[in-house]
Amino acid sequence: MISIIRKQNMPAGAIFCTLLALTIHQTLTTDVSPTVVTPETSSPPASPATPGPPERGSYNVTNATDTVCLLARMGLQLNISFISSSHGTTVQEVLNLHPNLIKFSGSCAPDFATLKLTEDNITLTFSFSLNSTSNKYHLSGLELSAALPDMAKRLDVGSTTLNYMVGTLGHSYMCQKEKTLSVTQDFSLNTFQLQVQPFSVNGDFGAAEECELDEDDMLIPIIVGAALAVLVLIVIMAYLIGRNRSHAGYQTI
C-alpha cells in the first residue's frame, strides 16, 4: 500500500508574516556605505597677480645751496619675499612704486650721493659712489625697509657692495629696457626707462651712456643692415663677372 503525503496549504496569515520577516531581514543586512568625511585643509596662499610696468617718476636731490646735484627718472618695481602673518609661510610679491605717492630726499657729497624714496610704509634708498681717479661712478648700495599689512615682521634688507649703473662723470646713465638688479635673496629691483646722474649735474642730464641691453637692441639692426649690404654687393659682383664672360664669348674674328 503506497502512502500518499498530502501537501497542506499554509494559511495566508503565515505567508504574509514570513514575507514580512524576510523583507525586514534583507533590509537590516544590506551593506550601507559609510559616510566619508573629508578633513578640511588650509589652502596655500594664492600667488598675487604680477602688475604691469610701473609709471615713470622724476626725482632730484639738491645741495646746501639749493642746486640740483642728483637727477633720476625711472619706473620702479619691487620683488620681495617675506613670511606671511596670515598663512605662516614665505610668499613672494611684486609691487610697483607710484611716483604720485612718493616723497623723495637725499644728500650729495663730492664722491658719495644718496636718493631716498618713501611711499607709505616702504622706504627705498639708492647710494652712489664716485671713483675720483677713473672719474667713474656706480650704484654701490640699495636698501629697502618695508612693513606691509601681511608681513609677520618688518623687512629690512640691502647691500652696500653693488656695482650697477656704471657711468662717467658728467654723463648720465640710461637703460630704457627693463633690468633686474639683484640685491639679496629676499629682494631685487626691476627698473624701467631709467636715466640717472648722481654727480656733476649742470641743470639737466648730461649725454647718456646706454646700458648693454639698449646697445644690443641697436646692434641687431646694424648687423642685419651690414649683412644685407654684403649680400647686395655679392649679387652685383656676380652679375658683372657673368656679363664680362658673356661678352668674352663673342670676340670679333
UniProtKB/TrEMBL annotation:
Bias (Pro residues) ranges: 45-54
Location of this chain's protein in the cell: Cell membrane; Endosome membrane; Lysosome membrane
Pfam families: Lamp2-like_luminal, Lamp2_2nd
Range of residues in the leader sequence: 1-29
Gene Ontology CC annotation, any one: plasma membrane
Domain of life the protein comes from: Eukaryota
Low complexity bias spans: 34-44
Transmembrane segment boundaries: 218-241
Domain Lysosome-associated membrane glycoprotein 2-like luminal: 54-201
Main location: membrane
Alphabetical keyword list: Cell membrane, Disulfide bond, Endosome, Glycoprotein, Lysosome, Membrane, Signal, Transmembrane, Transmembrane helix
Biological process annotations from GO: establishment of protein localization to organelle
Keyword Secreted: no
Stated family: Belongs to the LAMP family.
Name of the protein in question: Lysosomal-associated membrane protein 1
Organism: Phoxinus phoxinus (Eurasian minnow)
The organism's taxonomic lineage, starting at the top: Eukaryota, Metazoa, Chordata, Craniata, Vertebrata
